[in-house]
Amino acid sequence: MSSQQSPDSRGMTIDAPVAEASATGRTVYTESLRRAPESVRSARRLVSSALRAWGLERLEDTAWIVVTELMSNAVVHARLSTVRVTVTRRDQCVVRIAVVDRSRRVPQSQAADLDDESGRGLAIVAALCSGRWGAVPLRRGKCVWAEVELA
Predict the structure, then answer these.
(1) Does residue 63 have a pLDDT over 50?
(2) ∠ CA 100-103-106, rounded to 5°
(3) In this structure, which of 3, 45, 56, 137 has its CB flanked by the most CB atoms within 10 Å?
(4) Which residues, in sequence order, are CB contacts of 34 under 8 Å at separation 6+?
């Protein structure tokens, strides 16, 4: 399926959400988003669309927290103006959420002090995903992913 494009508020073209088959035959929902706080909402909508199409609505609350954290990290730490969000059904009960950005800096979970206002997000993702998250270095950035699963 070819990429669909639509203008953003500045008249720039951004890819609209697309469902496409990957090389493995799995359906992947993907969208390029501006690297901006307001794009977190669009990432949650993409996740919801995929989960509803697959009949996995029960994962929505957990998946929203995960994509919110991954997108928030990209907004703060990435470079360039866009990021790519993908949602892939790995099997009957597992969905992978990934955010690709142009920063080569790989995130690391850290211990936050009680007074810290940030630094807990990846620990929350790890807890929600039973430790199934990671970051893959890419030639021009990285892919940070996490898997949510039906219990």
Answers:
(1) yes
(2) 85
(3) 56
(4) 8, 14, 81, 82
pLDDT tens for 94-122 read 999 999 999 988 876 666 556 655 556 78
Inter-residue contact 110 to 126 (CB < 8 Å): no
Structure tokens at 38: 């307001």
Q: Cα separation of 103 and 33, whole Å?
A: 15
CA 54 – CA 66 distance, rounded (Å): 18
Token digits of residue 137: 């270095």
CA atoms within 13 A on the CB side of 46: 30
Q: Where are the alpha helices (DSSP H) in the chain?
A: 39-53, 60-77, 121-128
Tally of domains within the chain: 1
30-51: average pLDDT = 97
Share of the chain above pLDDT 90, in %: 63
Question: Is 3 within a domain?
Answer: no
> Is 37 among the domain residues?
yes
Residue recorded with tokens 């988003």: 33
